[in-house]
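Fold it.
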Amino acid sequence: MKSTELKVAIIGSGLIGKKRVNSLKPEQVRVTCDLILKRAEDLAKGAPHCVATVSPEKAVTSPDVNVVMIATLNSSLAPLAKMAIEAGKHVLIEKPGAISVREIEELLSLSEKNKVLVRVGFNHRYHPAFQKAYEIAQSGALGPLMFIRARYGHGGRVGYNQEWRADPKLSGGGELMDQGVHLIDLAGSFLGNFSSIEGHAATYFWDMPVDDNAFLNLRTAQGQTAWLQVSCTEWKNLFSFEVYGKKAKIHIEGLGGSYGIEKLSYYQMLPEMGPPDTTVYEYPRGDQSWKLEMDEFFKDI
């Protein structure tokens, strides 16, 4: 199927829904859906063939749609994805994709039964620093990979503990479910599957029934380790992702905006060891991660 033949319904017209629409061609957007009709109508502006609605059923059953993108609260992701899959649509669900393993397993089974492609959106893989990191790693320049160390955090905001993310019925969990899934996904994209999972989640600062910090020790069957921490008590926003090989190291910092300029530092070990040869790549112009992710999704369809 050519990308020009893919016609999309967006369910959820908030910040992420807007990012998805902005990365599509106007003629590809056929339905926008939100509980607040005005938001769906605003998102539909500029798309000549688009219909706005408050009905998810109308969005997923539209004969003018063959791809559904879902950008809603966590608790709604899997139920809406199930509806779209059963309607025979390909589905891109924003992370975390569901709020339980049971929901994920049901979506996997349904996607196979209905022969449609279902993917969880993890746009961080498509940031320019990570695209460069994959290029370096796949070239063999790092040598065998040993371990990953990564931290990701923000400081919340006034009233953060009253938002939907603090309600386990809506979010499914706290910081581990929110930013933690990005680090787990990124670590797995370098090291593969993890056979050993250890760690703990804690609530240190925010008065809420979900975690505000999580610490993970993930290991592959070969003994490679991903040592990860996520936090919403990081008073200065932080992103740090280090990949250690036997020949070299990569360190990615920043994601743009409040996280600082995105950059990749590449440290190459010398035969005599000591201070490494260092190359720094900076990406001050932002990223095209949302578009690149969707382009790959469409290609795979």
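DSSP finds nine helices and 14 strands in the chain.
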